[in-house]
Amino acid sequence: MRPLLADELDLQPHPEGGWYRQTWRADEPVRTRDGRDRATATMILFLLPAGECSAWHRVASEEIWLAHRGVVAIELGGDGTAPVPGVIETLGVDTMRGVGTMLGTCCVTVIAEGTDPVWCMENLMQFYRHESCGQCTPCREGSAWLERVTGKILDGKASMAELGGLHDIANGIMGNTICAFGEGTAMPALAFIQKFRKEFEAYVRGQRTRADARLTVEPWS
Q1: β-pairing verdict for 19-25 and 12-13
Q2: Terminal alpha carbon distance of the chain
Q3: Assigned fold of 117-211
Q4: Which of 201-208's residues contact partners 24+ apart within 8 Å by CB, and which partners?
Q5: How many CB atoms are located within 10 Å of the residue 91 CB?
Q6: Domain 4-110 part of CATH 2.60.120.10
Q7: 3-state class of 199 per DSSP?
Q8: Is the pTM for the entire model greater than 0.85?
Q9: DSSP secondary-structure letter at 10?
């Protein structure tokens, strides 16, 4: 029987468990390693009612989860269709705080191993620049500058001073906008720069080029 909330949101049974409805699909396709064409990005509503489980697929591409209600527990196991019982990790504010980070906009980004963090940041900044309503100047201009400078870094046309300027641009957004979207833009940018500084510097020094970068996109299994 379909739960009441699933009925209200017109969600259908998900093959892995839970309930879902696709709300958006990008027009641009990408060719996967097995030769299939898939959309570069999709968006779904997903509901996992209390007491139900979802057999999470192998993640080889980026996923962004926006948690709107409740707490999700993930049981980590082995390989195969029936993995052995493993450690249960609870996704929530306290969990993120315990590993030295925070949920911020209640969003968890899962980045596939091998994904270039600089290109990943450019991709994310393109999203924030596009989604900014433009009302607040720090967010409107700052998100555009973050995208533009990150693109210059990938193209090998940026200086170390411009790389350092990313920090200043992001800090200029923090606390200077009406809504929290500005912080949602600035905080991941600051995190990328802090955690992957060496990767950014490699592009500035000419040790890497955009041709070396990749966003890992593979089929689900």
Answers
A1: antiparallel
A2: 27
A3: de novo design (two linked rop proteins) (1.20.1440)
A4: 201/160, 201/163, 203/118, 203/153, 203/154, 203/156, 203/158, 204/153, 204/156, 204/158, 204/159, 204/160, 204/163, 206/156
A5: 16
A6: yes
A7: helix
A8: no
A9: T
CA distance 219 to 221: 6
Domain locations along the chain: 4-110, 117-211
Residue type, 9: L
The sign of the dihedral angle between the CA atoms of 205, 208, 210, 216 is: negative
The structure tokens listed for 160 are 């170390």
The residue behind tokens 């259908």 is 12
The string of DSSP letters for 111-134 reads: --TT--HHHHHHHHHHHHHHH--S
Counts of helices then strands in the chain (DSSP H, E): 7, 9
Helix%, strand%, coil% for the chain, nearest 5: 40, 15, 45
In degrees and rounded to multiples of 5, residue 46 shows phi and psi of: -135, 135
| Residue where the block lists tokens 């998100």 | 143
Reading the chain (221 residues) residue by residue, the pLDDT tens digits are 899 999 999 999 999 899 999 999 988 888 887 888 888 888 999 999 988 888 876 666 777 877 787 777 777 665 544 555 666 777 777 777 776 777 666 666 667 777 899 998 998 899 999 999 999 999 999 999 999 999 999 999 999 999 999 999 999 999 999 998 999 899 889 989 998 999 999 999 999 998 888 766 543 33
Tokens of 95: 């969990």
